[in-house]
Design goal:
The complex is a heterodimer of chains A (297) and B (363). Chain A has 297 residues and is mainly α. Helices cover 76% and strands 0% of the residues of chain A. Chain A has one domain (67-293): MetI-like (MetI-like fold, Orthogonal Bundle). Chain B is globular. The chains are: A mainly alpha (297), B alpha+beta (363).
């Protein structure tokens, strides 16, 4: 005997699971399972032909923490994030404010700003390699005009990381500008007129009205910039490969190198887990605190 | 130009030779409520924006309180403005919205707070200080916008269709609020609207515009009783003035005669000035508006008390009293500034003899 209510309820349940399943399958296959597998891998020793891998607990993490290279990489990545996040956001904002104004050849300016975003990172890396190359690179040629000595931007530990940062900022700013530009165009022009009549200067208007109204965009861009500061390492393959002497080594490149150049999967897995924990914490803090102070329309 | 507080002198602002305003001269007395009235696209908002300093004229000069402000920025013109969209800052609370201008102008805090409290009380906004515009109703937003204009303390306030986003009931109450505000504070208000009823009920003076030009300027009753053009006659009043082809009343072809529907009455068939057919009856409670059709007239209607039983298609005889007829000469038809009222006595054969009042030499 079939209870019609029960069968209806069951059908609803199946319907719900069916709706859920595509996302669930995708996320499980490509996010949840790899995460768990990575945690699992990080708890085993590196297996060799003579000594198969065995469970070592947190041993991999301990050796990471004792490795000065790891701390150098962490420091590098913090500098990398600390420079590229604010720099690309501020430049994006300034460019957007400018490109949103009544300037000649506005659409040309906009698309010019956007060009770096369209270029693949590897192509951008090659382009900048040409800028940085000592001797006949563009930077050196310009410097030469003013009698400055040749600088091997990518080849010396003092400048390599900053040279890499510059490429990232150049690459990201145009992308973020598009978001700011879109947000700026949703601000009704009569707010500017009302502020003008009240006697607000352009500066006051920007600080008191435009920037607060752009906060949701800033939050979005900030999260993206933060993710990119860990994720965006393609240009390292072209420019420095993390060198010289790990001066421009970033976390993700370090993980890649451990996993696929040195074939030390457990150490790579342990590093990945640490990055994952830190990123989750930062994202949670960002959404919790900044979200509360943001005005959404 | 004594007695004029705001003066436009040959102001022109056009876009590729179209739209905007063309050669506008106008003077506004201090403390008066002036409506700029016209259909959309007639240039009325442009005129207001030129006065506010949000647009620059390509020719002409603007004076406020005897000062040439033609090239001054908006902030130095000593005026406030209420926008159609209210232009409240969405991320600021009611309190911060109202204080915005005073903070910008660095008004000292005690004075700021006093003015804020005063404005909140005047506009009935107490208790809403901490709300953001999104949490307010349309009428409340409107009042915040008014409060923001009031606290500026400027004697000149510009309003750009401030009621057009409100529903009909609210519109009437805010309309009265605006009028009271203007009177109590002695403000000079320049009010742009496309709604003739608003303009009629609020204004000391109406400036009627069409196609970038001023058609007629005057007190509401002047525009109502003595429109200087068919356009003015049909734009002002609800229902608008009925317009008849002059030939029907024995005038030259091309001349037109206007008469307010409230002056039209039913007449005995042998004393009728005009015979028309009933097109529709609108029962309005106290009266019934009978819409009439005549091949040589438009806008004909007559109001009859109570309910009545006229049949659609029935012929009715109408009396069009001479003293309420307004003649529009053919040459003057569109927008000539030649008011010609006509009055006279009907001759026995019902062919009216037109006597012209306010007669000026015809061109």
């Amino acid at each position: 005997m079939i209870d019609p209510y029960q069968s209806h309820k069951r059908r609803q349940t199946i319907y719900g699971w069916l709706l859920l399943s595509p996302a669930l399958i995708m996320l499980t296959a490509f996010a949840f399972y790899p995460t768990i597998a990575t945690v699992w891998t990080s708890l085993f020793s590196r297996g060799t032909r003579k000594r198969p891998s065995e469970f070592v607990g947190l041993e991999n993490y301990r050796s990471l923490f004792e490795d000065p290279t790891f701390w150098l990489v962490v420091e590098n990545n913090l500098w990398y994030a600390g420079v590229t996040i604010p720099a690309s956001i501020i430049i994006a904002l300034v460019m957007a404010l400018w490109a949103n104004g009544k300037i000649p050849a506005r659409s040309f300016v906009r698309s010019a700003y956007f060009t770096p975003t369209v270029l693949p990172m590897i192509a951008a890396g090659n382009l900048w390699l040409f800028f940085y190359t000592p001797g006949f690179g563009v930077l050196d040629q310009i410097g030469g005009l003013f009698g400055l000595p040749s600088v091997n931007w990518l080849g010396q530990p003092d400048t390599a990381l900053w040279a890499v940062c510059a490429v990232t900022v150049w690459k990201e700013a145009g992308f973020f500008m598009i978001f700011y530009l879109a947000a700026l165009q949703t601000i009704p022009p009569d707010l500017k007129e009302a502020a003008d009549i009240e006697g607000a200067s352009r500066w006051t208007y920007t600080w008191r009205v435009v920037l607060p109204l752009l906060m949701p965009t800033t939050l979005f861009v900030l999260v993206n910039a933060m993710i990119n500061s860990v994720k965006l390492i393609d240009h390292l393959f072209i420019l420095t490969k993390g060198g010289p002497s790990d001066a421009s080594m970033l976390l993700l490149y370090y993980i890649w190198e451990n996993a696929f150049a040195f074939f030390d999967a457990p150490i790579a897995a342990a590093t990945t887990i640490l990055v994952l924990i830190v990123l989750s914490l930062v994202a949670a803090v960002q959404f919790r605190f900044i979200d509360r102070r943001t005005h959404y329309r | 130009m004594t007695g004029s507080y705001v003066a436009f002198d040959g102001i022109t602002r056009r876009w590729d030779g179209k739209g905007g305003v063309h050669d506008i001269s106008l003077s506004v007395a201090e403390g008066s409520f002036v409506s700029i009235l016209g259909p959309s696209g007639c240039g009325k908002s442009t005129l207001l924006r030129l006065l506010a300093g949000l647009e620059r004229p390509s020719a002409g000069a603007i004076h406020i309180a005897g000062r040439d402000v033609t090239h001054l920025p908006a902030s130095q013109r000593g005026l406030s403005m209420v926008f159609q969209s209210y232009a409240l800052f969405p991320h600021l609370t009611v309190r911060e919205n109202i204080l915005f201008g005073m903070k910008v102008r660095r008004v000292p805090r005690p004075r700021r707070e006093a003015k804020l409290a005063e404005a909140l009380e005047m506009m009935g906004l107490e208790g809403l200080e901490k709300r953001k515009p999104a949490a307010l109703s349309g009428g409340q937003r409107q009042r915040v916008a008014l409060a923001r204009a009031v606290v500026s303390g400027h004697p000149l306030c510009l309003m750009d269709e401030p009621l057009s986003n409100l529903d009909a009931k609210l519109r009437n109450s805010v309309r009265r609020d605006i009028k009271a505000l203007q009177r109590n504070l002695g403000l000079t208000v320049i009010y742009v609207t496309h709604d003739q009823a608003e303009a009629m009920s609020l204004s000391d003076q109406i400036v009627l515009m069409q196609d970038s030009k001023i058609v007629q300027t005057g007190r509401p009753e002047e525009l109502y009783d003595r429109p200087n053009s068919v356009f003015a006659a049909e734009f002002i009043g609800d229902p608008p003035m009925a317009i008849l082809d002059g030939a029907v009343l024995g005038l030259e072809t091309g001349d037109q005669v206007g008469i307010r529907p409230e002056h039209i009455s039913l007449a005995e068939p042998d004393a009728a000035d005009l015979v028309a057919r009933v097109a529709a009856c609108e029962y309005l409670g106290a009266e019934t508006r009978v819409i009439l059709a005549h091949p040589k007239a438009r806008g004909l209607a007559v109001a009859l008390p109570g309910q009545n039983n006229l049949q659609i298609g029935q012929e009715v005889a109408l009396g069009l009293p001479q003293e309420h007829r307004v003649l529009f000469r053919a040459a003057a038809g569109a927008a000539e500034k030649d008011p010609r009222s006509i009055a006279g006595r009907a001759s026995p054969n019902s062919r009216p003899v037109i006597a012209e009042r306010h007669l000026q030499p015809s061109s």
